[in-house]
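In this section we walk through a basic example: taking a raw amino acid sequence and producing a predicted 3D structure, encoded as discrete structure tokens. The instruction is simple. Fold the sequence below.
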Amino acid sequence: MKLYRTRNGILLESDHRWQALPETDWAALTTRDDLLDYLRKLAASGTPADAPANEGLLAPIAMQEVWAAGVTYYRSRTARMEESQTAGGGTFYDRVYLAERPELFFKSSPGKVVGPGKSVHIRRDSKWNVPEPEFTLLLSPSGKIIGYTIGNDMSSRDIEGENPLYLPQAKVYDGACALGPCILVQDQLPASETRIALEILRSGQAVFKDETTLAQLKREPKVLAEYLFRENSFPHGCFLLTGTGIVPPDSFTLAPRDLIRITIDGIGTLNNSVD
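The resulting token sequence is shown next.
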């Protein structure tokens, strides 16, 4: 089942059929441990609906914080070691990749999150900016994984590379996180062969394309979630971006009006322009 938050209410897609759900509070709905079973019950009283236009979609977030995990793919580890060489911090990331404890950091408050079709932002004091396509968990207040979506962890690589302590400035700013287009709700983790693809268009032409699979994710999502909830409470639940296995080359940086397309099999495509 896929759950969409739209300007006109909440839609449910199941077996290629669309339904408008009875009036329901999105914030309360997306904190339920029994979300899948509850959606099955709601579907019984839903009404047929048309698929939403992309411009009618909202970010699938209510009051949740957004957190992120880093260095969970070998490609990410290599890229962050390379960008940090001048600061002497490269070995930090190698040690994190091999360590039992993952890197976890705060990414965004809900008000800074961008939805489908909206513009993500690049910092004006940065010269090297990239999107990071990430398989993203929706966690209930109890720490249970109740859904999955697509996340874009926008990053200013030159700021982070200058000094690892600048990570919050490289990662946390207005428009630095996008989520959507929906919440995939199912009772098992997507298969390891699930494909994650990134395409960046400039003036209608592809300037970067790459893909990976969940099989390349070194750390189990449930382990990342367990570490996040250690000594930490989330009364509204939270989103957790699980890291990226796709990193554009060092010669590439985003430009205003670029179009970013992130596709994860079984979830859909998150489209965002750049400003």
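Looking at the output, two observations stand out. The mean pLDDT is 93. The longest helix spans residues 74-83. In the next section we compare this with other chains.
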